[in-house]
Please model this.
Amino acid sequence: MLDVEVNDVFPSCPQIMHGLIVFRGTWNKVDEKYSLIPSKPVVISDLKSSRGVGEPTIIVLKSRRIVAAFRGSNMMSRN
Model:
């Protein structure tokens, strides 16, 4: 994900790494489509969440700042 080295962040199981990227969109009247700008990726180590980030919820505050909350997990898979 956007220049993140998966083995540095999720070393025990890199094939199931999950992260979050938020896109800001502005409507371009001339092209009649959105112009999208991605955020930096949000990823956390598998030592803090065995499944990465999941089920993100995002809200834009009156100050125009963006807050994202997500679910993690510390359960180990037996598969």
Q: What stands out?
A: The first strand starts at residue 23 and ends at 28. The mean pLDDT is 78.
